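Replying to the earlier thread about multi-chain prediction with a worked example.

Input:
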Amino acid sequence: MILHGLNVTNVRKFVAPTQLCGLGPGLNVLAARNEFGKSTLLAALRAAFMWRYSSTGRQVKELRPFSDQAAGPIVNVDFSIGNIACHLEKRFLSRAGMSLRVGDETFSNADAEEKLQDIMGLEAQGRGEACGVWSALWVTQGDSLKQPELSGRASDALTACLEGELGNITGGAEATRLLAMVRDERAVLLDGRGRPKGRYKAAIEEEEAASAEITRLLERRRALEDDIETLAEKRRLLHHADDATRHEQETADLMQARRDRDRLHQHAARLKAARAEVQLAHGRLAIAHDAITRRATMEAERQRLSARTDELRAAMDAAQQRCDRAEQATAARRHDLQAATVRLQAAQEMHRRASQREKASAWQREQADATTLVTRLEQAAAQVAQAELHLATLRVDDAMMNRLRQAERTADRASARYSEQAARIEFSLRPDIAGQVRINGAPLSGTQLEITAATLLHIPGIGDIRITPPGADDHAHALQARTQARDALAALLAQAGCADMTAALEAHVTRQQAERTVSEARKMQAHLLSADMTDPAAALAAARARVMELDRLLASVAQDPDAAALPPLAEVQDALGTAEAQVEAARAALLSPDGEARQARDMLTRHRTELEQAQQQLDRLTLELTRERMAQPDDTLATRHQEAQAARDTAEGALRACEADRPDEDEAMVDARISRLERTLENRRTEVGELRQDIAALSGRIGIAEGDGLDERIAEHERLRDGHARERAECARQVEILTLLADTLAATAQDATEQYLAPLTRAMEPALRGLFPRAQVTLGTDFSITGITRATAEEFDTLSDGTREQIAVLARLGMADLLHTRGQQAMVVLDDALTFSDSGRMEQMFDILTEMSRRLQIIILTCRSEQFAGLGARRLSVETAGA
Amino acid sequence: MRFVHTSDWQVGKVFRFADDSTQSVLQDQRLEVIGRIGRLAREHGAQAVVVAGDIYDHEIPVDRTLRQPIERMRQFPDLCWHLIAGNHDPNVPGGIWDRLHAIGLPDNIVAHLDGRPAPMDPAGAAWVIPGGLKRRHVATDPTADMDSAETPAGVIRVGLAHGSVRDFGSDEVQNRIAIDRARRAGLSYLALGDWHGQQRIDERTWYSGTPEIDGFDRGGDGGGHALVVDLAGPNARPEVTSHRVGRFVWHRDSATLTQEQDIAALEHRLRNIDPQEAGHVLVWLSVRGALSLEGLQAYQDMLDALGSALRLLRVDGEPTLLPHADDLDLFGTGAVRAAAAILSERAGEGPEEQRDIATAALRRLALMVGAGDSRKGAAS
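Result:
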């Protein structure tokens, strides 16, 4: 196929009729700037061949002019098939239609469309699109990196070419088609991961669901059987429990037991009454007996009290006599005690006087010692006072001495600093002029001089020299400090009463001596003091008071001139002891009769009190006894007692008769029987009620379960399960069949593909090796390039953009060349392709394109005119009508 | 006295092999046949119908299933229907008969559950002596009490029981009925149920068989009928006539296919089971043999056609592929033919399952190639 002319009207930017000029066999290049409309021209070309004129799809609408959306695109194409000239015109959207002239034949609209598809090898794809190998050979902008996509008729055409190359039919395409069908069929049953889907999956799920439902229903069936068995058992139990005969018998037994218990209760009441009567009779008898006994007791008590009062009166008389005797003895003993007391007082006086006489000599010695102590204390006090007086006159004590020394050191340091501030002038003057030189008006003497202030040195015959030492201010300060220190020292010396430091030192020594004297005087004084009285003044006062006390005692002894005549002290002390013993003896003798008298008085009082009480009791008892006998004489009392005894005997007889009449049965046993029978009847009532409830509940449950028709439902679900299982097995079998078929077809298709791809590979390899020497390509069954082998095998997708683009272009050229060789129509259009190629590869591609263009028409649309200038191609131009 | 003897209705029976539509039709016909039995009784002037057990297929049917046969019988108030319990619907406590009792049976239906004789007709000329089952399986003869069953003198004694008069070699004897029970018990007629095929045991003892066949294995021994019994007197020999009441034909067949003539013969045979009512024919076919690829295609075409014509076509087995060099020509040349050759080789060797799959794959491939050729042919 050779494209000779392309004319577009109302296509995007080309509103006016626009002609692509210069087209011819071989290489054709349209080099123009961006947005010139190159891609629009290719789009118009594709639309003319691949889109039905009646299409209203988006891509067709996009062909409309930007400025006039109502205008319908028109494309005219002149081309030739072999030597047959063809002209194609297509109008889209507005007044859509087409015409096709092939040689002398002209077709229009649908016929034209069909004819066009036939001669171009196109295949209708729906939605107004037709597709063929052209979509792979006419490469739009941006698609040059993509592999050519071939399907359907395009693939068939290429395959037919390849198989024709081989000289026979490999069947690869047919096998691949069948393989796709098989896979499609299997895809109905299995998903992409090989898991069941669709009816296969549904069969599995429904079989499982049916099995689960069967399990559930069987479980309900078992529960129902249990319920039915339980219901039968409950009914049997109810029949047994609801036995009327047995119920009547048990009721009669209960009534009889209750009557037995009533009889026992009545007997127990009678027995109780008889016992109470016996007890009452005993009580009455006891009362009568107690009354007799009490009266006898009272009589005995009255007689006892009468005897007692007589005894007490006799005892009172005896006690009175004893008391009188004791009082007389007591008076005699008191007289003896008074006499002994007088004698003791005389002995005590004598002892006092004898004792003072014995103490007088000791008091005299003590009085002399006390007087001596007073004297010595007075002397010591005088010595201390004198020494202290002397010490007080001496002012240079240790503190003063320290202050003086401190002031002296301060003055020395001030003087030293003053001297340090002075400028020293050492000089040696001739003796003849020594007196003539004057300093500050005074003659200069000595050999050196310290100058601390501005000084005027006058040298006769020469003049005056003023010397001003540096730091006059510091020097003044030093001088002032020295003067203050010296003044302070002088003031302290004056305060100490000393002329200088030497005198101060002497005064200090003198004071230290005086302090030692005072200390010694105090030590002497301290020796005179007792340990318990350290105050000298107080000790002196105490000594003086003791001297005065002793003087008084000695004076009192001197006033008793008869003392000397007294017997010795020892005798006096013996006489005193004897007198004291007598007094004690008289006192002791007084105690005995006094106690006797007291005891006698106490006894008398006690007997009197007791007598009074006994008499009162006797009077009261006598009165009470008299009253009772007046109310109930003793004979009456005896009669009552006899009647009570008779009544007791009667009651006891009745009790014995009642006890003898006691029923044989035990009341507890009867109660237990009643309780048992009552419980039995109650339990049966409860049991019957519960059983009826259970039976009702079970019947209801069974009715519901039976109403659900478990057996029938189980059977129905088993049928469903079996049906699903058959369906599942059939699906599994189909999957197995399809898998085997797919695997077998895939294997044979692969073998066939490898056979018929060989010519395409061979067709591509010359061009490919022009670019990649010694390279080999690997093709897939869809004619896509899966890899390239240079030094090593490389996946197509891993290659660089430039290499992939070059290989993709070479693949299209190879296909076109193969189609052309096999007599098929082929023409290549590349829109802005090879954009990723470097200059070296581009040159190689030019060579390949040039070589290919000897057999094929190749149209290149590019914006890089300089780069494609060296291609030696036809230069295309675009002309617009009226421009 | 004239009455109809039937049994083994087994209403509610589920046919596991059937699809939903077939299942529905088969179940419906098990009810419809009751009407046909009633009409048969009317046509022959019968006064009663005795049903010898297994009215129901399940001990616990759904309520609708429970009521359906009752309602069908209610439609014949002029007939007295005498029922007993069978092994599929035994009279267990709380079971199906209690449910029926709770529902309440129409006056024209008598369920003989207590084993006591009862009049068969209002005049009391004949008495039913029932021998229904109280459990699915009983070890004792359910008709044993018939010997001592008391009935008024001079009446016709009709025994009604469910069980087997033979043990068929089973170790465990269940529901076994003495084969001479009619003679022992002085019965004018013993109406039996349990066997689904109609069977005469002796002149007074009959199995009526199921009125609507329900299995392939019982299709050929008389199922699908009901008996009209005519008794002139207690000692008169019963006149028993069999009448077809069933609708479906259950046919089991087998074929060995080795050539296309075999296929044609089989198809002819199956189509002629009931040429006028093929939709009432159910076939269970067992197939073996070996066919060429074309033969397999023809066989598949036959199955497709019969499957549509018959009510049910159930097929076991499949003819294997008989490899033939010419067969591969069907696949043309190239890859498809190579694939067919591989499959053909696999179809002729290895385990049966593998051969089966390979044969099916080859058939599938042939169908696909054939469809492709047809398409091309149609296009040309």
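Chain A touches chain B through 50 residues (CB under 8 Å).

Feel free to reuse this layout for your own posts.
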